[in-house]
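Input sequence (409 aa), recorded before submission:
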Amino acid sequence: MAGNTKTSRKAARYAVPVAVAGVAAATVAMVPAFANAGGPDLPKVTAQQLIEKIAASEVQQLSGTARISTDLGLPSLASGLLGGGGVTGGSASPEDKVAQLASGTHTFQVAADGPDKQKLTFLDGKHEYSLIHNGDDLWGYDSKSNEVFHEKGHGAPQGEGKGKGKERKTADRLPATPKELAEEALKAAGTTTDVSVGDTAQVAGRDAYQLVLKPKQAGSTVGSIQIAVDARNGVPLRFQLLSSQGGKPIVDAGFTKVEFAAPAAKTFDFTPPKGAKVNEGGGPEHLGKDGKDGSALKGLESLPGLGGLTGGAGMDGKGEVKVLGEGWATVARIDSGTGKGLKDIENDKNAPKEAEQFLNSLGDKVSGKFGEGRVFSTRLVNALITDDGKVYVGAVTKDALVKTADASK
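Predicted structure, token format:
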């Protein structure tokens, strides 16, 4: 969550390359930033200096309003299954709300006071959904259903002060802030990435530099990542993931209002309202579909009819996962070992109607040396599901995915 500068998140495995941890100075393009006509006039900095400014930022107290817009280009059926905006009822469990961030625009209020106190309140519609992390407690409250989610054991991550030795659970899966998205992107940048400084900007009324990351490799769905960095304190204020095909950002997350000061202590207090149903969380195993491990495949498995194809490969020890390529061209090949494929669904008269609808939304069939299959396409992640039960998934174009599948035979 916001404010914990040391928290290391596990981003979607195939959304950005993870082959290189950290940013080596030798790979950073030392390009100074010049103010553009519409941006503030700031002193020139190099990309390396800007990265160091982010790393040196010690801001852990803030409050404000943020907005995240996501346009993955999901088929309408898949988008509906992932959650279509507005506050859901159910158990008030965080993963239901997190799933809704896969599409649409969402506004939320953020407050943070160090690694053990954070609050995030979604402001979608007339109802509110709040996540409150206070010491060892994590609370989720859905005002629409008057239900509460509660989980114990949420001290600071291992080796970080209070709560040392405890494993974070749901708190590590709360929607990422611009800072955390930026940190994951910088960890992924290596020899396959050009890093430079772009035009200056104003975000939430604050002057900012813009750090730009671009893939050197052809075939990536990612055109660039642009990170607006507060010129005074080094806090990332906005994160934009742009498509190689152009158009509006795939992900645009940023503050619209922010103040760097300690929120009132009572901000993080929470007592279940009278009459509310309280559901106690079950730990990490309870959080099955928010994408901690193999997020792209997890998303596919949540769709009707596809769980049987993957057999849980890569998530529960079954099957085989092989990483092909490197950097932005990384593709994961998942072999469930079951031999079941899309044709089994197509020929299964007992398959649910939703499975047939989903198959029809996947797009054109493809073929090559790998055999035959279908491609599940989004603006960011593409997945090739073969008729013999293999899945190739990566943040690469359809043509690059097919080429990789052919080469792996």
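Checked by second reader. The first strand starts at residue 61 and ends at 71.
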